[in-house]
Amino acid sequence: MKTLQRIIAISLLALFCGFSASSVFAQDSLKDVMKARGLTEKDILAAAKTYTPTGGRDEYLAFASGGQSGQVIVYGVPSMRILKYIGVFTPEPWQAYGFDDESKEVLAQGRIMGKDITFGDTHHPAFSETDGEYNGKYLFINDKANPRIAVIDLHDFETKQIVVNPFFRSSHGGAFVTPNSEYIMDGAQYAAPYGDDFVPLSKFNEEYRGGLTYWKFNMEKGKIEPENSFTFEMGPYSQDLSDAGKGISYGWGFTNSFCTERYIGGIERGRPPFEAGCSSKDTDFMHVTNWKKAAELVAAGKIGKKVNGSTLIPMKEAIANDLLFLIPEPKSPHGVDVNPKGDKIIVSGKLDSHTWVYDFAKIQKAIKAKKYEGKDPYGVPIIAIKDVLHKSVAVGLGPLHTQFDSKECVVYTSIYVDSMITKWDYCEGKVLDQLPIHYNVGHLMTMEGDSVSPDGKYLVALNKLAIDRFNPVGPLHPQNHQLIDISGDKMQLLYDMPLPLGEPHYVVAIKADKLKPGVRYKSGWNSRKDEKSVWKTRAGREKTERTCDAAGKCTVHVYGTTIRSHLTPEIIEVTEGDTVSVHLTNLERAQDETHGFAMYGQNIQLSIEPGKTASATFVADKAGVYPYYCTEFCSALHLEMQGYMLVRPKGYKSEGDVIVDGTTYTKADYDKQVKTNIETQGVIDSVVKFITTHNYKDFPIVVALVEDATDQLGFAEDAKKKAADYATKGDWNKAMGWANQWWQYQVKTADMGLRAKTHLEENGAVKAK
Ligand code: RUQ
Ligand code: CUA
Hints:
The chain is of the alpha+beta class. Helix content is 21%, strand content 36%. Residues 123-124, 172, 241, 334, 400-401, 442-443, 505-506 line the site of (dicuprio-$l^{3}-sulfanyl)-sulfanyl-copper.
């Protein structure tokens, strides 16, 4: 309420002081705006809690699965402003992901049976962790349709690696990390034979398998190591989501499963459908795995066998070494969530109105005493539910996932069928509050909710249906992420955010100040490999090399650069049939000065951020003229950042090919331009004086701008000399051209200088002594 009072107080003050000018612009008073837009006090309060003024930052950054888009969506909380889509399993043209050679190599890691898979069904993002806390270094996400996990580097928000599961044919249950990101858990979903061979469905029970992979992650290198990863063979139950133990349950993992009936559908054969056969029993199984002990035994060579470059732990070995156990779960379970302390495990059954809370100490006790109620058909011991259950709580119809508050014992569970969020106490087993959402919530997420110290504060409901929440845009509706304030006793719905990109599934949010993304690369950087590019090109060293092999196949490598506002080279000449590789290094160091590169008819786009080297390779198989240009509006003369690729027919004989300028200039034109340039230099000098007489070195942004401006000014000096040379020769066209280029460099220098000056003025720079 305090905030609202403040807003009203401010607006009253505004009225009093007369600067709201309410008589002239009637809707400038808060009351008038509320009336005109039909807003309640509650709405205004919600707005005040989410509104972020220009230049403002969010407290948290959320990384959402992009569902069928195969991407990750980054947005701020509480503003709910989308900041980025990260290309992961699917080409993303803006970032040139899947268009430049470097990222094509990343996507190629995700090939399956020799096929490019450019679709991904992303489900569960997870942050890398240190001691159970998000460390802000990496993000992992799975693809359900093709069992893959991707690694995104949070230093530049780029996808660096994709690994394909060597055993599974689908994987819904990734990515969930252990407390030091030792491993990324990845559960199979639809049982299938391991390997590519045909196995008839009649052998389902014997030869179809589920499983759980523990992918080894190397935090130093930022890479998953398939050779150090291992997979638990599991019965053909649909292993679903997982969560890793922490605190006292550190070293263990929990994975639920549905369709433990091992039912195979076949409507067309007159058999009841999957949905009926997979939901006949009252309970399914939670799989409990001891990954720490398994890792030790694998390392010691005591268990496991190498298959497809990775390790498989056969069920028999897992059972014999007390690595795998089953516990009944509520009917058709979905989420499994370990509490921050690690002593409780919470599971909801989609077809049960109860959520079950398991006690890890009791699970340990049963395992130590070897107290089982039986075995499954594969010999995996089953722990009796009565021996390990802490509480079973009626939370609503169709509970799915649970997230944790900063307050101990307080959790939030998504209730799919009832379309609501239930806030409850899992220690006492009582419901505290319920809030309707719109509609049919799937996952939900609290700030840093998967870490050992959740922040609470906000909750995001990821709703499966939006129905009537937004302006209609045709039969395919956007998704609806709803932001909820959970700081008080009662939940308060704050904001509806439409997401026009794939089904939401899951999202994780991290405190924004834990992220330290860079703004530029080291000069000549291959960002996907995170090393110096072999195609790095320096200013003035641009060149084109053509080599032909014995068979007469020729390759042209263009070593080029980009800087406001020209591409070097501006004319590329090749011969029909040549393979052309254009490698462009962005020489800029200024923030946000990305250049692009697109060419007619070649399906090419590059995004070359400051410092990056990116490449495009294609076959120039048809003679002709191919204009190319920069795709980012990088400066006033961005449209002029252009060039021509000339593909000469084989055997073409040049007839001089002298370029004739469209306009002729005189000495008078030249003198006029030089005069302008001298005046411009005066402006630059005054800006430079301002900057250098202030403590600009205390402002890294300004230092970068000054470096960049100094570069541009150096180029200006060069152009000035060329202009003077041609002037002495009386070549007024070239003299005029270089005088203009001199001026272009000056304009860019002035632009950056002024930006630096404004920054200093706005951020309280003081006169240097
Ligand atoms: S899912 S709505 Cu995680 Cu794919 Cu639960
Ligand atoms: Cu560079 Cu437009």
